[in-house]
Write a structure and sequence with these properties.
mainly alpha; 11 helices; three-stranded antiparallel β-sheet; about 55% helix
Length: about 350
């Protein structure tokens, strides 16, 4: 019989690694098996658990939320060809900044480990002990935060934030550029509550889950973007070996993030099938509760936020390019390389 109930210890358990992951002398999470294949941290039982919960949903014929980059209506800005143009014109700080900002936001994910995650059984009519949603407070979300910003219980072991800084330093050298300005937030601004029908503690976690899933989807697009650049034989000519190693590190992060995307997809899909108790003493179907806010979050992340980011970044980049010799010509060339 398929196991569907897991303990906190189960969800936090590592594989027996043959060797640790070390980048530039710093130990990172995860490790390698006997064959030299990278294995993500805390996935000995977490991956089997997430797959089992997903299979249970599929067996019932329930809808699984789309969690692919097809949800993104806009491509990366600057585009791959535009970023190549910037690197070739001694404007490598633009890519350095992107890698640094990504590391900072990954580090902020550690707050999930320190957040109080309520037991959703308190506001759900059906028994959720055999579902992913029933494990959010049992380590499922904690493991996510530990992957991103490091496990507070294991200081000294680098997580995704440290991995992004390490791969950045591989291709550019340590302290190649000053720290960039860091945006305040990647989530949708909290102008109005997404889930006014339910208690605020649970509403906050549900909003977090929706935002996290779209952030993971956008991250997948950025992983592909980075790998394409680091693979390009025309770039980083004096650091090709380092660029190849940096690409491997991106792929390890990408491997780690896979379980985040699927677990969030599963939990939110489960929520659609359940019945929630409302603040006024009534109940509401999960699909009625979630579908509208999900469309709002998808629209904001895939279109409105990306267009706002593009306008801001475009103005900055045009200003930098315009200061080069032949600036007007180069700005026109740069803009011509933007994806349609």
């Amino acid at each position: 019989m398929t196991q569907l109930i897991y303990s906190n210890e189960d969800l936090m358990a590592d594989h027996p690694f043959a060797r640790a992951q070390v980048i530039a002398g710093e130990e990172m999470h995860g490790g390698f098996d006997e064959a030299g294949t990278y294995v993500s941290p805390r996935t000995l039982h977490r991956w089997p658990a997430v797959r089992a919960w997903k299979q249970a949903l599929e067996a019932k014929g329930d809808k699984i939320l789309d969690a692919t980059t097809e949800l993104l209506s806009r491509s990366n800005y600057p585009s791959r060809e535009q970023q190549k143009f910037l690197l070739r014109n001694s404007l490598g700080q633009t890519f350095w900044n992107s890698l640094t900002v990504t590391g900072v936001f990954e580090g902020r994910g550690r707050f999930i480990c320190e957040a109080t995650i309520p037991d959703f059984q308190n506001i759900i009519v059906e028994n959720i002990s055999e579902l992913g949603i029933g494990h959010l407070h049992k380590g499922l979300l904690y493991a996510h935060g530990a992957d991103e910003g490091g496990d507070p219980k294991r200081d000294g072991i680098g997580a995704h934030d440290a991995m992004w800084y390490a791969l950045r330093d591989l291709v550019f050298g340590k302290d190649a550029y000053p720290d960039p300005e860091i945006p305040e937030n990647l989530s949708r601004p909290g102008d109005e509550p997404l889930f006014p029908q339910i208690d605020g503690a649970y509403a906050g976690i549900m909003g977090l889950l929706l935002n996290l899933l779209m952030i993971e989807i956008r991250a997948e697009s950025f992983f592909a973007f980075c790998c394409d650049l680091l693979d390009d034989a025309e770039l980083f000519l004096d650091r090709r070996a380092e660029a190849a190693e940096a690409r491997e590190v991106v792929e390890r992060i990408r491997t780690d993030e896979g379980i985040h995307t699927v677990s969030l997809q599963v939990v939110l899909s489960e929520m659609r099938t359940l019945t929630f108790r409302t603040k006024d003493g009534g109940t509401i179907a999960g699909s009625d509760l979630i579908d509208g806010p999900w469309e709002t979050i998808v629209s904001w992340h895939s279109d409105r936020r990306q267009e706002g980011d593009r306008k801001h970044t475009k103005a900055q980049l045009e200003g930098m390019i315009g200061k080069l010799d032949g600036g007007d010509r180069l700005v026109a060339e740069f803009n011509g390389l933007e994806d349609a």
